[in-house]
Structure formats: structure tokens, C-alpha cells
Amino acid sequence: MSERDFDLAALRADQERTAGVARIQAALRPRGLGRLVCDCGAEISPARRAAYPGTDRCFDCASLGERRRRIA
């Protein structure tokens, strides 16, 4: 295996871990409310929460996650 393979495997493991934590957090909070603050500390805007009920990421973190998924 090359170093790139290990990097991709580590990235995938991190994505799965993050997704698992998000599923647990979503199950523990009331439906449709979402969070007010992202894990990065930024506020999740009211417009984003209205557009994506139950969201748990700010726009920047969601965009970064989507870019990472496209690379992997």
C-alpha cells in the first residue's frame, strides 16, 4: 500500500467517525431544531437552519465536507 492509500483510508475513517457522532447527536436532540453553533464554534445562521432543518454544520464546514467527499 502506498502512502496515498493510507491517507485515503485515514480520511475515510475520520468521515465515518464524524458521521457516526452526527447520527448520535441528531438522535439525542428534538426533531427539527438543529444546533445553533457548529463544532468549529461558528454560529449556524438562522437562514441556513430554516433551509436545512436539523443541520449541525455552518456553511463553511458543510462546504469543506462536500469538497472532501468529492476528492475521496
Key features of this structure:
single chain, 72 residues, mainly alpha, 3 helices, elongated
What does this structure look like?
This protein is mostly helical. It has one domain (3-71). The chain has 3 helices and no strands. It has helices spanning 3-28, 46-51, 59-71. It is elongated. The two termini are 16 Å apart. The mean pLDDT is 83.
* Total count of domains: 1
Radius of gyration: 14 Å
Strand content: under 5%
What is the terminal separation in angstroms? Answer: 16 Å
- Give the count of helical stretches: 3
Helix content: 55-70%
* pLDDT < 50 runs, ≥5 residues: none
Largest sheet: none
Total number of beta strands: 0
- Helix/strand-derived category reads mainly alpha
Quaternary organisation of the protein chains = single chain
The average pLDDT is 83
- Along the chain, the helix and strand elements come as HHH
Shape type: elongated
SSE layout and pairing:
Layout: H1 3-28, H2 46-51, H3 59-71
In short:
62% of the residues lie in helices and 0% in strands.
